[in-house]
């Protein structure tokens, strides 16, 4: 990965990377992370406390309900979490879709 720009090594690395990605996608598909786990991961990653999430999730009781999986994620909350924390919307919507299918 220390190859200089515009050299055969850079071209070779680009080809190898493309081949690796083409192999991994069908053989080792990665599922989207669970919404609650994505929120908790982002909290740890950014050093956030539960109190820091109140503007995005709402009251502390609502926030703890979401983090304990007792409450779902409404669309407005999904949008705030996506915008405020940079969590992929697909991960947040996954929980909503799963809850709709199960419930």
Number of helices: 6
**What is the name of the CATH topology of the largest domain?**
434 Repressor (Amino-terminal Domain)
Large-scale geometry = elongated
Content-based structural category: mainly alpha
What is the straight-line distance between the termini?
A: 48 Å
Describe this structure as you would to a colleague.
There is one protein chain. The chain is an all-alpha fold. The protein has two domains: 1-30, no CATH class; 35-102, 434 Repressor (Amino-terminal Domain) (Orthogonal Bundle), CATH 1.10.260. 71% of the residues lie in helices and 0% in strands. It is built from six helices and no strands. The chain has helices at 8-27, 35-46, 50-57, 60-67, 75-85, 89-102. Helix 3 crosses helix 4. The longest helix is centred in the first third of the chain and has 20 residues, at 8-27.
What layout of secondary structure does this protein have?
Elements: H1 8-27, H2 35-46, H3 50-57, H4 60-67, H5 75-85, H6 89-102
Helix pairs in contact: 3-4
Keywords:
elongated; 434 Repressor (Amino-terminal Domain); mainly alpha; 103 residues; 2 domains
Short description:
The chain contains six helices and no strands.
């Amino acid at each position: 990965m220390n190859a200089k720009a515009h050299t055969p090594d850079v071209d070779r690395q680009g080809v190898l990377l493309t081949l690796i990605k083409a192999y991994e996608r069908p053989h080792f598909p990665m599922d989207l992370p669970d919404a609650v786990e994505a929120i908790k991961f982002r909290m740890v990653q950014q050093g956030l406390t539960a109190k820091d999430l109140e503007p995005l999730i709402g009251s502390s009781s609502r926030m703890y309900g979401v983090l304990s999986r007792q409450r779902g994620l409404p669309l407005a909350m999904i949008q705030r979490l996506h915008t405020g924390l940079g969590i992929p919307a697909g991960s947040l919507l996954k929980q909503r879709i799963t809850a709709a299918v199960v419930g």
